[in-house]
Amino acid sequence: MQSTRILAIRHGETDWNVETRIQGHTDIPLNAQGLWQADQVAQALKNESIDAVYASDLSRAMTTAQAIAHAHGLPIATHPALRERHLGHFQGKTWQEIESQHPDDALLWKQRLPEWTPAGGGENLLMLSERIHTCLNEIAARHMGQHIVCVTHGGVLDILYRLATRQALHAPRTWGLRNTAINRLLWTPEGLQLVGWADEAHLSQALDEKGA
């Protein structure tokens, strides 16, 4: 059976990541560290055969994808369905602010209740999972037998990991989602499989070379 190989990558760091401020659909650019991370992942993938680069249409993902696409002479195809989960009125707040201002909602979020929907136009986990599942099937089916990159967000990657490992939406997260780590998946019409996850060697090696 033919398959599509997928490199799923979280965008580089933003200032809101550092502040633990919830971004969701808010369009926050990469900071200096995030731009460096984007360059490092582009260098790590420059010798791989890549046929297409997709990205969320939020600038933090697009900028990261541009570094990868440029190294391969490819355009970027943006897809709004690759956006982060919409977290309603939580967006713009830090986790500490959410716990103090909305303690009941904060508890439901922390418990990963699939049906809990953030007020203010937010998505619950069931909605997010359906969005990502549909989007991935659509993109991957276009590229049977090829190798593609999808630059997206932490919440999206969490869903992809769960789809590939058949873990429930409410199961505690035990896997990494670091900015610009390399995650490898294999898609067939039968479903998604995990090949490799949270490869951060390019970031560690670059730090060693810098003497950091």
Walkthrough of the structure:
The structure is a single chain. By secondary structure, the chain is of the alpha/beta class. It has helices at residues 15-18, 32-45, 59-72, 95-101, 103-110, 125-141, 154-165, 201-210; strands spanning 4-10, 52-55, 76-78, 147-152, 182-188, 191-199. It has a single domain (4-210), classed as Phosphoglycerate mutase-like (Rossmann fold, 3-Layer(aba) Sandwich). 41% of the residues lie in helices and 17% in strands. It has a six-stranded mixed β-sheet. The model has no long low-confidence stretch (mean pLDDT 96).
Give a brief rundown of this model.
The chain has helices at residues 15-18, 32-45, 59-72, 95-101, 103-110, 125-141, 154-165, 201-210, and strands at residues 4-10, 52-55, 76-78, 147-152, 182-188, 191-199. It is an alpha/beta fold.
Describe the SSE topology:
Blueprint: E1 4-10, H1 15-18, H2 32-45, E2 52-55, H3 59-72, E3 76-78, H4 95-101, H5 103-110, H6 125-141, E4 147-152, H7 154-165, E5 182-188, E6 191-199, H8 201-210
Parallel strand pairs: 1-4, 2-3, 2-4
Antiparallel strand pairs: 1-5, 5-6
Helix pairs in contact: 2-3, 4-5, 6-7
